[in-house]
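User: Predict the full complex structure for these chains.
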Amino acid sequence: MLTREQNERLVRTDRGTEMGTLLRRYWIPALLAEELPEPDCPPVRVKLLGERLIAFRDTEGRVGLLDELCSHRTASLFFGRNEEGGLRCAYHGWKYDVAGNCVDMPSEPPESRMCEKIKQPAYPCVERGGVIWTYMGPAELKPELPDLEWAGLPASRVFVSKRRQMTNFMQAMEGGIDSSHVSFAHRFNMDDDPMHAGTAGLAYLKADTRPKFEVVESDGGLLIGARRNAEDEQYYWRITQWIMPWYTIIPPFGTHNPLGAHAWVPIDDETCWAWSINYHPTRDLTEAELTAMRNGEGIHAKYIPGTYDTLANASNDYLIDRQAQKDKKSFSGVEGIAAQDFSLQESMGAIVDRTKERLGTSDAAIILARRRLLAAAETAAKGDPVPGDQGAHHRVRSASVLVPKSVPFQEGAADALVVRDGEDFVSI
Amino acid sequence: MLTREQNERLVRTDRGTEMGTLLRRYWIPALLAEELPEPDCPPVRVKLLGERLIAFRDTEGRVGLLDELCSHRTASLFFGRNEEGGLRCAYHGWKYDVAGNCVDMPSEPPESRMCEKIKQPAYPCVERGGVIWTYMGPAELKPELPDLEWAGLPASRVFVSKRRQMTNFMQAMEGGIDSSHVSFAHRFNMDDDPMHAGTAGLAYLKADTRPKFEVVESDGGLLIGARRNAEDEQYYWRITQWIMPWYTIIPPFGTHNPLGAHAWVPIDDETCWAWSINYHPTRDLTEAELTAMRNGEGIHAKYIPGTYDTLANASNDYLIDRQAQKDKKSFSGVEGIAAQDFSLQESMGAIVDRTKERLGTSDAAIILARRRLLAAAETAAKGDPVPGDQGAHHRVRSASVLVPKSVPFQEGAADALVVRDGEDFVSI
Amino acid sequence: MLTREQNERLVRTDRGTEMGTLLRRYWIPALLAEELPEPDCPPVRVKLLGERLIAFRDTEGRVGLLDELCSHRTASLFFGRNEEGGLRCAYHGWKYDVAGNCVDMPSEPPESRMCEKIKQPAYPCVERGGVIWTYMGPAELKPELPDLEWAGLPASRVFVSKRRQMTNFMQAMEGGIDSSHVSFAHRFNMDDDPMHAGTAGLAYLKADTRPKFEVVESDGGLLIGARRNAEDEQYYWRITQWIMPWYTIIPPFGTHNPLGAHAWVPIDDETCWAWSINYHPTRDLTEAELTAMRNGEGIHAKYIPGTYDTLANASNDYLIDRQAQKDKKSFSGVEGIAAQDFSLQESMGAIVDRTKERLGTSDAAIILARRRLLAAAETAAKGDPVPGDQGAHHRVRSASVLVPKSVPFQEGAADALVVRDGEDFVSI
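Assistant: Here is the predicted structure of the three-chain assembly.
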């Protein structure tokens, strides 16, 4: 439970807010690289942390991310002409390069020097792992480039999707670090998810539905251990990495299945992008896997065609199927892991009222994540380094391991919890 | 005309408001019994007086009405599993019985006592007359069970429907106690309504379009008399019962036709449920009558299929037919008694601005009803008994009678104005 | 750039605001005469300057414009019966004539004098040029009737349309007095507009894309000169008339083509009517011209059938065609002069934030127009005469002329800038 004031501090991310200042200290997944497929392609509207932006890829392939509204008379650059090294406003022809410099101002007399004085606000961008990332904070505090394992793999080993969720990013992310709900919301979907198939861990998961949680701080976020009984003097530990400010990595089900990961990024205070990634560090994804992912299976979602909006949504009660619920094909009646999550999260309201919740021991990770974010927001306000802004904080793995009962999980699994390039991850 | 402050007191019904406190002193028609057709059927969202609730029928057939959002992390119980004597949240499996007791908390360790400390807010429910009623006020002030005549009849003698109206409940109810508008808004629909057919009263009604109104207080509300000229030394009186806080009974047209009644219940401050009831105390409704009622005729309405929303609504200008208006088939061009009323009432805005109205003598009942409600709200604030909360206040009838000119209507019609079980009502 | 406070003064037009007080000093284009095609036809909802009104044509053909909501209980007169010399409310039958007098009150006793005390607010109307105009200001300050050239021509020489634009009227009008954008937003549409065909001016326009602007005050508004190089010692001047508070006349392309004009009228602060007029003072419009205009070509727009809402709109990204943009068939990818304008103007937001704009020399007319409106608002506050309220201010023409370089445009074109009845306008 939070006070109203704490909740406000946690969820507000516009420029000038505490959390907004913190989030602007990180590289931000802004859009899929495929949304800007080629030089001089149509510009794309992007909204992040409450700011309306326009993304474009210039003639040389460089990506620009500018304020959406032209500096002149504030018409949208969505209608702009993307040509010859810049984006030209369709209203009076002012033209900007990817850095926001005004490079042509044909509405003014040839002798005018006004063009030199105009700078369209612009954010730097990089492309990694099929994602265009941007940095919206002060230049002097720009962190190392994003270095999550999936962002550095060859394209053939990664699949990335995004979907719009109609909630604040925090309650979406809280679902991502909440290992407890898996045993309920997704209970009847464990077996049929191809990413889970035929793993020893699944048997432990089903046998012990009341895992004990232990959460410890990592350098860049949290290690969230869910402990279940196993044979002999061992525990079965599923360890989730939460990397600040918004990344999660799902513990593996066997080393033959791809890994799963997420990022939860504010569009504005009432909507967010739920990024979902599958990847395998040592092999290409198979065509069957890719087909399933493109089809919205597993952690991905089915879309309304032509959009990143989900087919199941509040307007259709998430296509709930009461018979499937009755028949124990779906715990909530909603189909699909992703939709099961976002249907429940959206039902809390766009911004959950955390003064009304009643948290239990299974919510320990959520409690700690909030605490770290609020503390980091204070750090960010001073301009100090913040957790999760270093490459080393990104180069971690989640794991599913057996650890002797007498050994703390973070010690027993220490080796499994860091990225080893070219080496497989650890999972029973 | 009211002051802005009086209007606010009259229309606001959220918990904590004056009118909200009054309305929570009565049993409230909450949903149709048919919406929960069988044990363990899907739960149903219900909103009353601004509160988001969830109704369900448990394994033993008992009805529960709980806060919609789970006490744990505030996910909606709409997605809950209704099984084995309770409603289980789909997020982490917390389970509640119809009284709101937490009866299972599988996300916490077996030794946890947290479950005992959790109480999901719940309201008691009863089923009567095809309606599930609830009581949302203080337990110690709970009134007698609702005892309107129609609520106590065998199912074969009653038909109940509800429709959502896009206004505050007050301006809907004001339409219900406003006998004057019948001569205008419904003028061309008198004859074709099967409930009116072939009655002597109809002739008086048409002959005298300027009735004189007399309104007197009853124990539970108001007696609204509309006086028209008749033969000899008699008046034709149509007497409407208004029972606090929201019930009306339409004066009869002959004893062979069913009676009509309404209830106007706040969903929130800008929408309400208009309940419409036809019933006959001494005979079953005929198949022809039931077919007409199900088809939205008379005081009932046609729906958008699968909803309780009306087919004629603001988005389609209530399917207004200007030719029918010209041809004197419909006074306003809108078809159907119910739609004629709600189209006009919705056109005033969701909450009518009563500082702008100009009331005449024909509005006497409205003026008095507002006064009684505002006075009762003050009484309720002190915790004292309020009018309309006793069975005797409910056991009344409306009537259509001839009374000698020298006799006050409430005396001349006294016998006709109370329920006599098994006996017919009084109507010429 | 304006301060926030200046911007607010400029855009707010509800009754009681500064700009609202100014605009209520002029005759206002309220609706198309064709919307009330015959006596006793259905009433039509009209919203102007934030006021909800109802227009009707009575049995004798007179037009009334009343407050939409009945004085009695505030039901909408949209459902009213238009018959026998007045509009009768469908709720309780109160009836009003075109001047707002209550002429029948059948819900009250025959002896009641209440009817005499009721006056439904009403505005005077006149019909001119296919438009019904109204005056919403103080009776004692009512100006001369609207006397724009197009309003006085025979019907066969004028075509008038209106479309709803989802912005404040000011930013729509700023587009109308902004000659600079034509060279960009409409660049690839110059040739195919039949209204431009085969004129000498077009060649100058294309040859010199950086016109020099000179703006001077006229009695009733502004003369906006756009100067381009021509042969010898001459300039090609395109001179736009802006007549306060919201009229523009487009400079002609040859005398054989019809003229174009606009009016930009607030519906409320976030929407406006864009009126578009084509006319020729000395000849009838041809069937081909009328067909094109009805089809939404030129300055007119294509509609969603049955509405005055545009087919291209924000919900469909204005039907943008990126290939047409690439192929230089449309500068912004949007089709049609009107849609090119309103797509950009709506993209600024419903009310543009003028604290963020960066104006150049090409924005001189906009700067001066704002200044004149703000000054006139102060004049109106004192009840003094305001520019644009006299017939002489209306009887002006725009022109396209060659003027010797040494002569100021307003002198060289003086004769061309006034209406000469029965004589052609001046255009090369």
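Chain A has a mean pLDDT of 95.
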